[in-house]
Known about the structure:
Blueprint: E1 3-7, H1 8-18, H2 32-48, E2 52-56, H3 64-69, H4 96-107, E3 111-112, H5 119-129, E4 134-138, E5 153-157, E6 166-168, H6 170-177, H7 184-191, H8 206-215, H9 219-228, H10 235-243, H11 245-255, H12 278-287, H13 290-299
Helix pairs in contact: 1-2, 2-4, 2-13, 7-8, 7-11, 9-10
Amino acid sequence: MTLMLIDSASLWYRAYYGMPDTLLAPDGTPVNAIRGYIDMTARLMSIYKPTRIVAALDGDWRPSWRVELFPDYKANRLEQEGQGEDEEEPETLTPQIPILLELLDLFGIPVVGVDDFEADDVMATYAENENGPVRIVTGDRDLFQMVDDKRDIKVIYLAKGVSSHDLVDFTYISQKYQIPGERYALFALFRGDPSDGLPGVRGIGEKGAALIARNFSSSAAAIEGAHSGHESLPPALAKKIIAGLDYLTVAPAVVFLARHVALPRIDLSIPGAPKDLSSIYQFKERYGLGASVDRLISALNW
């Protein structure tokens, strides 16, 4: 009864940059992101054989409530001043997204996005509230905080591509970062994430954040340890924690994923084969999607 949660933007960006831009529909519309997304989805479905699936979308890639708490959240990704607050997106990718979403709809694959929440929050909520096993498909380390060996929640991490992807569990996190596997969120809180414009606690890098995560189970415990002169904290590190109290007050609500988003009540089951595939085949021909569509049909066992 595996639930596969797909970080759609992560997948279509990876597909866009990983597939040749010479892949075009008969009318000249680029389709490299569409074909790559469908190919990756089909391959991962064939490997992990989910019985439930969700393609998660950003309702807002920079939610207002996160920006209110921390104005610099993802500010580094904004377009140049005067061009609005839309995340910069390659102009040949933009027209592909509605086509891809229409194709997913034709296949009956559930697509879920919620206003003022990121896809990460949608996936975190499903992972928190649905029975496992859960496999989260993403190239984003933020989702490592959802890993839970007891509930069989793992991340299919695509940083090295589908063929060489990592299946992230507590052991992976522990070996890579030298921290308890369940403390990735705490580690990320102190370390920060430049890609999201999150500086972390000033002066604390990966090694200092790992030391904190090894010795404390929460930011409150680490702060208390800094004030009390805990033996595991070098004085210089304790001083940095205390100096970063303002950041540590607001950052957890920004760094930690929302796990109680109001999600639509929909059937997450892998769609069964329709009586007639003609509309899908017509769509395939219209956009020149070739074997990519056939691979997804095969992965669905239609």
